[in-house]
Amino acid sequence: MKKIEYSAIKGNSLGYYGLLGGLGLLMLIGLLAVWHMEHQGHWVTGMNNQIVWGMPHVFAVFLIVAASGALNVASVASVFRKEEYEPLARLSGLLAIALLAGGLVVLLLDLGRPDRLIVAMTYYNFKSIFAWNIILYTGFFAIVGIYIWFMMDHNMYKFKKTAGMAAFVWRLILTTGTGSIFGFLVARSAYDAALLAPMFIVMSFAFGLAIFILVLMASYHWSGRELGDEIVARLRNLLGVFIAAVLYFVAVYHLTNLYITEHHGFEKFILMEGGSYTKIFWIGQIILGGLIPLALVYAPGVKNCRKTLSLICALVILGGLATMYTVIIAGQAYPLQIFPGYEVTSSFFDGVVNDYTPSIYEIALGVGGVAVSLLIVAFVIKVLPFLPKSLADSK
Amino acid sequence: MSANKSKVAVNNSRRAFLSKTASTAGMITIAPGVLLHQVANAKPDDQPISEKVRWGMLIDTNKCEKGCTDCIDACNAEHSLTDNGRPESDTQYIRKVTLRDKSTGHELSLPLMCQHCETAPCVDVCPTGASFTRKDGIALVDKHICIGCRYCMMACPYKARSFVHEAVKNQTLSAPRGKGTVESCTMCVHRVDKGETPACVEACSKGMHDAMIFGDLNDPNSKISKSLAQYGGKQLRADLQLNTAVRYRGI
User: Fold this and answer.
1) ipTM for the complex?
2) Using CB atoms, which residue from B92, B129, B165 is nearest to A347?
3) A43 touches chain B (CB under 8 A)
4) pLDDT value for A264
5) Model confidence over B24-51: pLDDT tens digits?
6) pLDDT digits 0-9 by tens, A122-148
7) Mean pLDDT of all residues in A29-36
8) Quick check: is B26 in a domain?
9) How many Å lie between the alpha carbon of B134 and the closest alpha carbon of chain A?
10) Contact A123/B103, CB-based, under 8 Å?
11) Which of A81, A271, B110, B187 is at a distance of 20 to 30 A from B130, taking alpha carbons?
12) Does the residue A131 lie in any domain?
């Protein structure tokens, strides 16, 4: 295989500074939203005592799940020895770190007491999967950071495969942990399922790869570097497999619930009678986020069309957000089954499907987190040699 | 607010027992000008909480009057829970739930609050350990290390917890609250530690309903244990096997 030459992008164009400025502005708006939410208290958001996790968590969990998926390209190269992916490994690691950072910023800034970060870092309840996640996130930064260092340092290059393997195992555990945040909850009908952990891993493959492809194509297009059809076609096919796998897991999850009488009420809610939640599931998650991009991946005539691929990736990302909305918000909207066999009413919204209207502040915080991720990538590829000078097809 | 609020006679058998063991109330000076009332029959502050005791409640839904809010009013006053006019985000430690049997149409009403589970999901999931269960079975939130992540609210099968969505006013010394942290029924731990009964139970009794009994589940001679032994009582979501300290009769 020919030697790969990496270099930092020039990043002195008006467009580049415009990009940084735009992302910075989104980040600033996010921070202002946080200031407002924290100063006033969470009553200014759409979240309440029924829907306790809202839009910030949709964005945060999406970014965290996508982070481990973004590392996949590097893992394919180092763990599964596919040399064609090797030139993309550095960017894959960087994007993984950046997405995780963006997700964690959102998660942290939505806390009731974000000023107590030090408490979260020093007090651990080891039975809590959330506490384990804090360790997993911190470890992910460290391991992927070391992996990137080994990839970039000639003296350490010989340990690259070991670091790549460690990062691969760690990212699987990390997403198992993220899925288990919901999987370990016995209280609610939507959760309490071991399937959620592997389902989150498969989702991470799809969401992470979709973001990776978009970032790759944008950075090569804007920096005027060559990106060959060969590598893009490989990524596109891989994405197709992942989208299909996500649909498979979602089908198994719902089929299992449909078989179990106890869960019929919840399935009826999600699949048929849940109003906006049902629409977001069918239109957002299944049709726009799954079936259409899957059909487009394998559609004849647009095989090497970059615009179609961009659309596919955008749809997968949109579907990912819809999936998180369904899992997190719809999962809470369905009432707790405390009194099976009874119709329940109370002053505390027992027995009713809970409404949720996200506030502009929550959306601003979520978008701010995305901006943080992209800002990190845009800045780092300017100062360090992350991108190969050319990814043209091998002759 | 004074630490030893008005004591109203409540549970007669318990009060009788306590009065036997009670020493006379005294006052100690902890600093010049600062006085603390030492309450008769209180657990001395330097004594650890004993696991020999398991505080619990038995609620007889047959005696719980529909529309009555005595327990809720007492709880709100005791903990200074203010109504901000935003029912979706305002804190509720206790709520009255009306149930209608889908097959028979039979209606009943009951107060629902933290069930003080022995193996509480809120305690399991709390990342910092802010959610904890005392040795005597009372589930609490340490407001100093709660980071406001609300994972406990996701995990609670009874929807017992509230998040403090806005600045709190008129806090009581005995029941501190804090914006950005999670809270729930404390089983009036500040009263229980002084040998008193929770405010809701006291109010229910005062209103002549007697739908709530408070006492030690570990003591076979306590009123609650005797009543449970004689007439039984159910746990909510018993399928989860959380061994709740609050039991219900008539559901």
Assistant:
1) 0.94
2) B92
3) yes
4) 95
5) 333 334 444 444 433 334 567 778 888 8
6) 999 999 999 999 999 999 999 999 999
7) 98
8) no
9) 15
10) no
11) B110
12) yes
Give the domain extent around A210.
6-390
Say if A395 falls within a structural domain: no
Range of the domain at B95: 43-249
Q: Across the interface, which of B98, B153, B161 has its CB nearest the CB of A346?
A: B98
Is B9 among the domain residues?
no
The total number of structural domains in chain A stands at 1
| Residue indicated by tokens 């409540």 | B10
A1 domain residue, yes or no? no
- On whether residue A197 sits in a domain, the answer given is yes
Q: Which residue of A has its CA nearest to B119?
A: A127
Burial of A334 (0-12, 13-18, 19+ CB in 10 A): buried
State how far the Cα of A101 lies from the Cα of A375, in Å rounded to an integer: 11
Q: B33 near B223, Cβ under 8 Å?
A: no
Can you tell me the mean pLDDT for B196-206? 97
Q: Does A343 touch chain B (CB under 8 A)?
A: yes
- Whether residue B114 lies inside any domain: the answer is yes
**Residues with Cβ < 8 Å from A204, sequence gap 6 or more?**
A65, A66, A67, A68, A69, A72, A171, A175
**What is the four-CA torsion angle of A141, A146, A149, A154, rounded to 10 degrees?**
-170
Q: Is the pLDDT of residue B17 over 50?
A: no
User: Tell me, what CATH number does A345's domain have?
Assistant: 1.20.1630.10
Give the residue among A8, A164, A153, A174 at the shortest CA–CA distance from A83: A164
Residue-wise pLDDT tens digits, A155-203: 999 999 999 999 999 999 999 999 999 999 999 999 989 999 999 999 9
**Total domain count for chain B?**
1
Q: The domain that contains B53 carries what CATH number?
A: 3.30.70.20
